[in-house]
Design brief:
This protein is α+β, with helices and mostly antiparallel strands. The chain folds into two domains: 41-61 and 208-396, Beta Barrel (Elongation Factor Tu (Ef-tu), domain 3); 98-173, Helix Hairpins. The chain is 27% helix and 37% strand. The chain has four helices and 21 strands. It has helices at residues 3-29, 99-134, 140-173, 219-230; strands at 38-44, 48-69, 74-79, 86-87, 92-96, 175-177, 182-184, 194-195, 201-218, 234-235, 243-247, 258-267, 273-280, 292-309, 314-316, 319-327, 333-339, 341-346, 353-358, 365-369, 380-382. A hairpin with a 2-residue loop joins strand 15 and strand 16. The longest helix has 36 residues, at 99-134. The chain is elongated and about 140 Å long. The relative contact order is 0.19.
């Protein structure tokens, strides 16, 4: 080998050794993994009373949903309304061919006239024979038969009149009218189709002011709330007097608040949930029946609860956890993971926070900023003194992350 190349190789090896030695020294002087300690902000948790909100998936429905069905059998001649448009109570919607019913009414009227004529004849016969029977000019049986025939004729008149009224009613049913005011749906039968009495569905009408929003509370959720109330940890509004907020599918909030108007005490055998229903004013028909929305219930309060900002919660293989400050054997500040059980979501003046059911105790310093570089046992550098407990984030600022959809 050329001596010049051999000398160059020794020089390169020496330089590499020097560089590695320098890196080792820098790692020994730096923080965890060779990086400087992460600068973090903490907050001291303390028990407070927090307003809590419960959020559920709901679906809008009309306060009255009416199925409009044919009440007589016949061919649909005409549809008189615009599908999907608002309709008023009593407004004609369909015309079923009235001619057969008009003919039946005419026949019943003739039958009534005949029965009335028979009654008049029977009455005259009874009036003629009654004096004769009193004078014993005729037998009593003949007079009694005349009286009975008059009674039979009177009954026949009543029957004919009742039949006429029934046929007139059916004739009137050939004009199908809206039973309530509300929003109409599409016509289930087209013109020319056969409608069967009390069977064929023609359309539906939904009363949308007020509008109802149905939602369900799981049995586990209800049991958890009941235990929390019994233990004095949670106070619920009396008589379900929640402040109800409706959130639409695009994330916007419906401008008008609602109230709970029904809460079932039984568990559904099909879904295993308690059914609840809210009522909201909808005079401008901004909400339509069948929309999926989120129902936010406010008015409950957590008593002496510990809470942390949403930004402090992290996901690990075993579930949710937070970082709290601790000390290593040399007395230096380090980050320690702490598994926690998360409770209700708090959305209010104190910011987006979560109640911690277990895993933390009063006085723990929870890291709320600077978690990106943290690992269990990593050294940390405190950026500032802990802010007052109950605030939404470092330096009293509220975190800007949106609350997770679907959290109850």
């Amino acid at each position: 080998m050329n001596p010049a190349f051999r000398v160059c190789g020794y020089v390169a090896a020496a330089l590499a050794t020097a560089v590695l030695a320098g890196c080792g020294q820098s790692q020994s002087k730096a923080g965890f993994g060779g990086f400087p300690p992460a600068e973090v902000t903490t907050m001291a948790v303390a028990p407070h009373n927090f307003p809590v909100a419960f959020e559920y998936v709901g679906q809008t429905l009309g306060s009255k949903d009416v199925e409009v069905r044919a009440r007589v059998t016949g061919i649909i001649e005409k549809r008189l309304y615009t599908e999907g448009s608002p309709v008023k109570a009593g407004q004609p919607l369909f015309i079923i061919d009235p001619k057969p019913y008009a003919a039946q009414v005419a026949q019943a009227e003739a039958e009534l006239v005949r029965a009335q004529a028979q009654k008049a004849q029977a009455d005259r016969e009874r009036a003629r024979l009654a004096p004769l029977a009193e004078r014993k000019a005729i037998g009593q049986k003949e007079a009694d038969d005349a009286a009975s025939n008059a009674d039979f004729a009177a009954a026949a008149v009543q029957s004919a009149r009742a039949k006429l009224d029934e046929l007139k009613l059916n004739w009137g049913y050939t004009k199908v009218v809206a039973p309530i005011s509300g929003l109409s749906s599409r016509a289930q039968k087209s013109e020319g189709s056969l409608a069967t009495a009390n069977d064929t569905l023609l359309t539906t009408i939904s009363q949308t002011d007020p509008l109802w929003v149905g939602f369900s509370v799981s049995e586990n959720e209800q049991l958890r709330l009941t235990r929390a109330v019994a233990g004095g940890q949670l106070a619920l509004p009396k008589d379900n007097a929640y402040d109800v907020t409706i959130k639409l599918s695009d994330g916007s909030t419906f401008p008008r608040r609602g109230r709970i108007n029904f809460s079932d005490t039984r568990v559904s055998t099909t879904t295993g949930t308690y059914e609840m229903r809210a009522e909201v004013e909808n005079r401008d028909a901004a909400l339509k029946p069948g929309q999926f929305v989120r129902v936010l219930l406010r008015g409950a309060e957590r008593k002496d609860a510990l809470a942390v900002p949403q930004v402090a919660l992290l996901d690990g293989p075993q579930g949710k956890f937070v970082y709290v400050t601790g000390k290593d054997k040399d007395g230096k500040d380090i980050a320690q993971p702490r598994p926690v059980v998360v409770g209700d979501w708090i959305d209010g003046d104190s910011g987006n926070q979560f109640v911690i059911e277990s895993g933390l105790k009063p006085g723990d310093n929870v890291i709320v900023n600077g978690m990106a570089r943290l690992q269990p046992g990593a050294p940390i550098k405190l950026a500032s003194a802990p802010p007052a407990a109950g605030q939404g984030g470092p330096s009293g600022e509220k975190p800007t992350q949106p609350a997770p959809a679907g959290k109850k």
